Amino acid sequence: MKPVFEQYNGNNEYCLSLSGVPEYVNSGVIVVKDDYDRKYIVSRIDYERYDDQNYQYVFTLNWPVIDVLPSTLFQGIPGLDLSLRHRKYYRVNMTPYFITERSPSENREDLKELLDEVKLDYYDRFEWILRAQRKCGVDNLLVERVHSSKTIVLRQGNYLNESLQPHDCVIIENWSELGADEKQIHHNLMQVLGAGAGLFDKSEDRFISEDECCTLLKLLMLKEEKRKQQIKSLQKCGIERAKSEGKYKGRKKQEIDWHLFEKVSAEFKSKTINEEEAMKRMKISSRSTFYRRLKELHSKKG
C-alpha cells in the first residue's frame, strides 16, 4: 500500500497518509497538566497497521487548547514542527521521535523487566507508553489511552470530575445550572475546555464552536492568572510587613523522613515506581523540590 498525498506541504515531507482501512488501531491522547493537576489534551495519537504490514502514526492536534496554553506549560510536541499548524501530522513506516524518546529500545538490557512491569508479553513501544503512564525527562507530557466516548449532562451542584477527552460530549441544559457558585462554574468549564470535549448548549440546540471554546478558555485562564498574581502581591506585602516588624522567619522547610525517602529513591532509581508515584509517597508536589531532595539524599550518603 503506497502513501497518498493528504494536506501535503513541501516544508514537511512526512505530512502524508496511507489509504485504505487499517486492520489494527491503537490510540491515545497527549496530556499536559498544570500546577492544579488539571489536564489539557493537546493531541490525539493513533497507531494504524495495515494488512500488508505498512503502518503509520497520526497526530491530530487540538489547536483550540494549544493556542491558549502559556509557553511555561506547553513547549510543543517533540519531533513535530507545530509552526506549520497542520491539523494532522503523519509518520508513515517510521516510529516518530515522540515515541522513541519515551519508550525502551528493543536492545535495552532490562527490556524484559520493563515489559513485565506493565504486564506486556510482546514488544510494542506505543502500547508500553499507554500502560506505563510515565513522563519523559525532557518534557512534562503524558500519554493516556483513548477511552470510549461518553455523554455527560452537567447539572447544578455537581463538580465535574470525569476524565474527559476530545470525543466526549458535555450537555449544558441551562447555563444558570453550570455550577452552584463561581468556583464550581470555573472548575467545570476548565474540565471540559481543557480536554477539548464537545460542549452542547441544549437551550440553543447547538454545539459551542471551537472559536467560542478557545475564547472562553483563554478568558478563564487569564482570570486565573490575574487571581494568582493578586495572591502573590498580597503575600509579598505580608512578608514585607512581617520583615519590618521583625517577625518574618522565612518559609519553613518541609520535614523529610530520610529513611522512607531512601527506600522510595531506590525504587525510583530501579524504575519500580515512576516519578509521580515517588512524589506522591513523599508528599512532595514540586518536581524541582523532589530532585533537589534527591540530590540532598545522595550528598548525605556520600
Write the layout of secondary structure elements.
Layout: E1 3-5, E2 16-18, E3 24-33, E4 39-49, E5 55-61, H1 63-66, E6 88-92, H2 97-100, H3 111-117, H4 125-132, E7 141-145, E8 151-154, E9 169-172, H5 182-195, E10 198-201, E11 206-207, H6 210-244, H7 258-269, H8 275-281, H9 287-301
Q: Please, could you describe this protein's structure?
A:
This protein is α+β, with helices and mostly antiparallel strands and 302 residues long. It folds into 3 domains: 143 residues, no CATH class; 105 residues, Rossmann fold (3-Layer(aba) Sandwich); 44 residues, no CATH class. It has a 5-stranded antiparallel sheet with strand order 6-5-4-3-7, with helices on both faces. It has a 4-stranded mixed sheet with strand order 8-9-10-11, with no helix packed on it. It has a two-stranded antiparallel sheet with strand order 1-2. A hairpin with a 5-residue loop joins strand 4 and strand 5. Helix 5 packs across helix 6. The protein starts with a strand and ends with a helix.
